[in-house]
Amino acid sequence: MADKKILLSGVKPTGRPHIGNYFGAMKRFVEMQGSYESYVFIADSHALTSLQNKQELKSNTLGVLLDYMAIGLNPQKVTLYKQSDVPQVTELTWIFNCLTTVPYLMRAHAYKDAVANGKEPTVGLFDYPLLMAADILIQGADVVPVGQDQKQHVEIARDTAQKFNNVFGGTFKLPESIILESVATVPGTDGRKMSKSYGNTIPIFATDEEIEKAVMSIVTDSSSGIPENVYAIHTLLREKGDLDKLYAEKKGQYKELKEALIEDLKKFIGPMREKRQALEKDKGVVLEVLKAGGQVARERAEKKMEEVREKIGLKIS
């Protein structure tokens, strides 16, 4: 039997995930975990570009780990680890820095957006794509699931691998994107794309009260008799035929349709929320998962870095 391809993904610990995150990406990671040799990390080093609060970073990092285990990522199938537990990544980033030109990195979307908005980007923000390239390449990823807006990062990783291979000889695989098209299609409570930055989310581990408040605040269009934003979110939870029948029967009855969505969200979110609460009570076991995953990822990274150091001339023995 052929070896499984390697899948890698990382998530920044910057706040509570919402149902857009879940249906756009997190659910796919759970579905893929049996088909790939999967490495999913918490991008705590990346988070430093925007978060400089010790307690918040620690709390958020543990939170992401709890989130992933609660939705069904199995530590027996997936290596879950913390980015900063693999210091070889930052070592490799410096080597990539020395192969990459400033004009090339100036094309990166995050940098261009910051400049366009009149901000003075930090070196960390500017260098972000190469840290991500190191994350991807050091573990030998074949595939990287991303939203369309993150595709450029995988392209930069491919370019960087090719540059290194051209200068020092074949060392890194060229990873492929798996584009998660649905990332951009989950609407928020205001009709825009669901996003933490817009404050229009329904958290994936929301309390019943939070679910009720969020759904009742969904903006509706009164012209068609079908509240499109409510319907769009509802399609994530029910079969289309069943849903269309409900919306035909309750046409124009927006309050009742919202109440139906509330009930379906409670049924969907409730079990995951309870699992997360149980995991939170057993923090020692959860942290052991992170420790074990870090060791696996670090050992893989060190093996690759031994090869890199030899090829570029850092090893002289």
Which structural class do you get from the secondary structure elements? mainly alpha
Mean pLDDT: 93
Q: What shape does the CA trace take? A: globular
Q: Low-confidence parts lasting 5 or more residues at pLDDT below 50?
A: none
Supply the number of helical segments: 13
Query: At the fourth CATH level, what is the homologous superfamily of the largest domain?
Result: HUPs
What is the makeup of the main sheet? 3 strands, parallel
Strand-residue proportion: 5-15%
Strand order of the largest sheet: 1-2-3
Elements, N to C (H/E): EHEHHEHHHHEHEHHHHH
Could you say what the CATH architecture of the largest domain is?
3-Layer(aba) Sandwich
Described by its quaternary structure, the protein is single chain
CATH class of the largest domain: Alpha Beta
Instruction: Tell me the number of structural domains.
Output: 2
Global Rg: 22 Å
CATH topology of the largest domain: Rossmann fold
Give your account of this protein's structure.
Helix content is 56%, strand content 8%. It folds into 2 domains: 6-185 and 282-312, Rossmann fold (3-Layer(aba) Sandwich); 196-277, Orthogonal Bundle (Tyrosyl-Transfer RNA Synthetase). The longest helix is centred in the C-terminal third of the chain and has 30 residues, at 283-312. The chain is mostly helical and 317 residues long. A 3-stranded parallel beta sheet has the order 1-2-3. It has a two-stranded parallel sheet with strand order 4-5. The chain has helices at residues 19-32, 44-47, 54-71, 88-97, 102-105, 109-116, 123-138, 151-168, 208-216, 228-234, 240-249, 254-281, 283-312; strands at 6-11, 37-42, 78-82, 143-146, 176-179. Helix 4 (88-97) crosses helix 7 (123-138).
